[in-house]
Amino acid sequence: xxxxxxxxxxxxxxxxxxxxxxxxxxxxxxxxxxxxxxxxxxxxxxxxxxxxxxxxxxxxxxxxxxxxxxxxxxxxxxxxxxxxxxxxxxxxxxxxxxxxxxxxxxxxxxxxxxxxxxxxxxxxxxxxxxxxxxxxxxxxxxxxxxxxxxxxxxxxxxxxxxxxxxxxxxxxxxxxxxxxxxxxxxxxxxxxxxxxxxxxxxxxxxxxxxxxxxxxxxxxxxxxxxxxxxxxxxxxxxxxxxxxxxxxxxxxxxxxxxxxxxxxxxxxxxxxxxxxxxxxxxxxxxxxxxxxxxxxxxxxxxxxxxxxxxxxxxxxxxxxxxxxxxxxxxxxxxxxxx
Length: 338
Ligand SMILES: C[S@@+](CC[C@H](N)C(=O)[O-])C[C@H]1O[C@@H](n2cnc3c(N)ncnc32)[C@H](O)[C@@H]1O
Prior knowledge:
The structure is a single chain. By secondary structure, the chain is an alpha/beta fold. The protein folds into two domains: about 5-110 and about 215-315, 3-Layer(aba) Sandwich (Rossmann fold); about 120-215 and about 330-335, Orthogonal Bundle (DNA polymerase, domain 1), CATH 1.10.150.170. It is about 40% helix and about 15% strand. The chain has helices at about 15-20, 40-45, 60-70, 85-90, 110, 135-145, 145-155, 160-175, 180-190, 205-215, 215-230, 245-255, 265-270, 290-295; strands spanning about 30, 50-55, 75-80, 95-105, 230-240, 280, 305-310. A seven-stranded mixed beta sheet has the order 3-2-1-4-5-7-6, sandwiched between helices. Strand 2 (about 50-55), helix 3 (about 60-70) and strand 3 form a beta-alpha-beta unit. Helix 7 runs antiparallel to helix 8 (about 160-175), helix 7 crosses helix 10 (about 205-215) and helix 11 runs parallel beside helix 12. It is globular, with a radius of gyration of 20 Å. The model is unreliable at about 1-10 (pLDDT under 50). S-adenosylmethionine (SAM) binds next to helix 2 and strand 2.
């Protein structure tokens, strides 16, 4: 990655609210989404004995190595997907941890480096892979069936014009490869029209949907919540920051299903017959950024922070659709990065 590529630095979202809710932390914590390290640093400064950080993006590793130099006994970075945090941590000989933080989605660094291909604001290769391995957005857009593209835009992006956009993508790719972020963004702009009073750029929903699809973000989130729950000691804390309504719905349902002591019959059936609470909520309502944070960092505007404490040592596998995971055709698998 070229330095000249860089546009702005990452600002940790809702970190001060997290610190107000949990002014002192202790024990070993997992930061499952290291990014620029804002939460790892916050945890180390608030009393964590050790932070084990995970990130699937190889570009964060040099920054993480600086943390390892600064805190040689208290910080460790592991490259990988947080949905496998149990196995990653087991390799270090750890059976349980005191807390897990997941600040999901992409970082400002990833959006701001045009070469990563996440943004329609700066032209770059149509890539969008957090892990930089496997199939990219270019593969999906240029090879997938029209019906799969349309399904992704509709279900992950809640894009009303999903069908029209997918149809146009398939027409255009017969003429030339759609291999850059600007080519895709201008195609969408042409379909939706530039004279509409869009509050957001017309390509926003489609880009978000494609990114979520190729990085398998929602299924990873569900597996990450399950792994974290299993790994937490009794009384351990699980904090999740989301940026998208589909992500927050998953976290909310996961925490709600496991926090109520008197589930309805329907809920008991959905969660497999267990009505005992596993979690206690630390904050009853999700924490959202205040106006000051939003004015400093507009990308924080849709963030939501939920924290729970584990009260019971038991976990039952949940049906992902009961958490609100959209059901997308299995053919998506061949267009997902590793
Ligand atoms: C919003 S940023 C985190 C920012 C970080 N909390 C900070 O304060 O700097 C999300 C980071 O998580 C990583 N990430 C997203 N999903 C992941 C997953 N399933 N496994 C591992 N890393 C993931 C991304 O590569 C990105 O670096």
